[in-house]
Amino acid sequence: MTSDSDLALHPETIAVVAGRPPRTADQPLNTPITMASTYGAGGDLEYGRYANPTWTAFEETLGALEGGRCLTFGSGMAAICTVLDLLDVGQRVVAPRHAYTGTLVRLAELVERGRLGADLVDITDSEAVLTAAEGAAMVWLESPTNPALEVADIAAIAAGARAGGAIVVVDNTFATPILQRPLELGADIVVHSATKYLAGHSDLLLGAVVVGDDERYRALLSRRSLQGNIPGSAEAWLALRGLRTLAVRLERAQASAATLVDRLRDHPALAEVRYPGFGAIISIVLRGGATEADRVCTTTRLWLHSTSLGGVESTLERRRRWAAEAPTIPESLIRLSVGLEHPDDLYADLAMALDRAR
Ligand SMILES: Cc1ncc(COP(=O)(O)O)c(C=O)c1O
C-alpha cells in the first residue's frame, strides 16, 4: 500500500491492514519473524544491519499511521540519539524544559562536550519557543511532555520555526498517531518510544522515526546502518502485533483516564491533578511530600510500581525518585499510566492507597 492511499483510510483500519504480505495463495497473513544476519547477495537486503523484512512490516504500518516514511530502532533513545546526530557540531537545539529525562540528559551531555548548544523552554509558550528558535537548527518538542503533561501548539511552532530554517521534531510517544499526527501539523520528524503504547504490553524495547522527506529518510537510514542501533526482528514482530490493537487499547485507556480524573479531582490527599484532556497518562501531585508519595506507590495492589508506561497494565511512579528528573517537577508528583483494568477497580485501589498515605 502507498502512503497516499493509506491516508484516505481511518487510523483504526490502517493499523490492521498495513504491513501485510502480498495477498496471494499460501502467503501467511502476518509477516513472519525473519532471523537472519545476512541474505543471498545481489538483492535489496544484503546484510542484517541494513534491512529486515519484519522491521519493514512494522515500518510500513507506523509510517502509514503517521503519514510518512518510518525507520525502526533498537529503542526510543536509539531513535532520539540518531535524530540528534543529524545536527552538525556547534548547532543549537531548542528543547522542552520538561521532557523525558533520557532526552534531556543526552542533550546536556552533548552540550557539555561542546557538540551542540541547547536552550530549554516552556513549550506551552509558543512565542517564547519561536523567539528561542531564531538561528536554531532544531526545535525539539514532546507533546504532551513527560511527566508534566504540558501541550505544545505544534502547528504554530512548526510554521514559525520552519520558516526560520529549523527542523521541527516531535516526540509523539504519549499521544501516538491515533490522537496526534505531527507531520500533518507541519513537523519534519516524529520520534517514538514504541516500547510504550505502540507495542503496548511492556514486553520489549523499540524506537521509531517517521519523516516526510526522502533525503532525511536516507540520512537516518545511513546512520542506522552504520551505527547499528537496530532492533531484533522478534521485537519488531511483537511491536507490530501490539500496533494492530493500538486504537482500541488507547480508546479504552483514555476513557478510563477521563473517569479517574473526574473522581480524583476532589480527593483531599491531592493538591493537583494534571491531565491534558486526551491520552491515558495522568500526573497527580500529593499534598504531602516524597515520603507520602512513595507510600502510595508501594501500597496499591492493582497499580504496579514501575517506571515506563503505555502497557495494558496500569503503572505508577514518583518521577523525582530519579536524580535526573527536572527539579521543577514536584517531589510528590506521581505519574499514572492508565491501562485496561476496569476504572472502578483502579479508582478503588488508588483511593485506598491515597487514604492510607495521609
Ligand atoms: C516520551 C519518551 N520518549 C522517549 C523515551 C525513551 O524510550 P525507550 O525507553 O524506548 O528508549 C521514553 C521512555 O520512557 C519516553 O517516555
Tell me what you see in this structure.
The structure is a single chain. With 358 residues, this protein is an alpha/beta fold. 39% of the residues lie in helices and 16% in strands. The strands form two sheets. It has a seven-stranded mixed sheet with strand order 1-7-6-5-4-2-3, with helices on both faces. The radius of gyration is 21 Å and the shape is globular. It starts with a helix and ends with a helix. Residues 75-77, 100, 102, 142, 146, 171, 173, 193, 195, 205, 207, 308 line the site of pyridoxal-5'-phosphate.
What would you say about this model in short?
By secondary structure, this protein is α/β, with parallel strands linked by helices. Helix content is 39%, strand content 16%.
Q: Low-confidence segments, ≥5 residues, pLDDT <50?
A: none
The helix-strand sequence is HHHEHEHEHEHEHEEHHHEEHEEEH
Q: Give average pLDDT, whole number.
A: 97
Which strand order does the major sheet show?
Answer: 1-7-6-5-4-2-3
Bound molecules: pyridoxal-5'-phosphate
Q: What is the 3D shape? A: globular
Q: Over the alpha carbons, how many angstroms does the gyration radius reach?
A: 21 Å
Oligomer: single chain
Percent helix range: 25-40%
Please report the distance between the alpha carbons of the first and last residues. Answer: 56 Å
Number of strands: 12
Structural class: alpha/beta
Give a short account of the largest sheet: 7 strands, mixed
Alpha plus pi helix count: 13
Strand content: 15-25%
List the helices and strands and how they pair.
Elements: H1 3-7, H2 11-17, H3 53-66, E1 69-73, H4 76-84, E2 92-96, H5 101-112, E3 117-121, H6 126-133, E4 138-142, H7 154-163, E5 167-171, H8 176-179, E6 189-193, E7 207-211, H9 214-227, H10 233-244, H11 246-264, E8 270-274, E9 281-286, H12 290-299, E10 304-305, E11 315-318, E12 333-337, H13 343-357
Parallel strand pairs: 2-3, 2-4, 4-5, 5-6, 10-11
Antiparallel strand pairs: 1-7, 6-7, 8-9, 9-12, 11-12
Helix pairs in contact: 2-3, 3-10, 4-5, 6-7, 11-13, 12-13
The chain binds pyridoxal-5'-phosphate.
Residues 75-77, 100, 102, 142, 146, 171, 173, 193, 195, 205, 207, 308 line the site of pyridoxal-5'-phosphate.
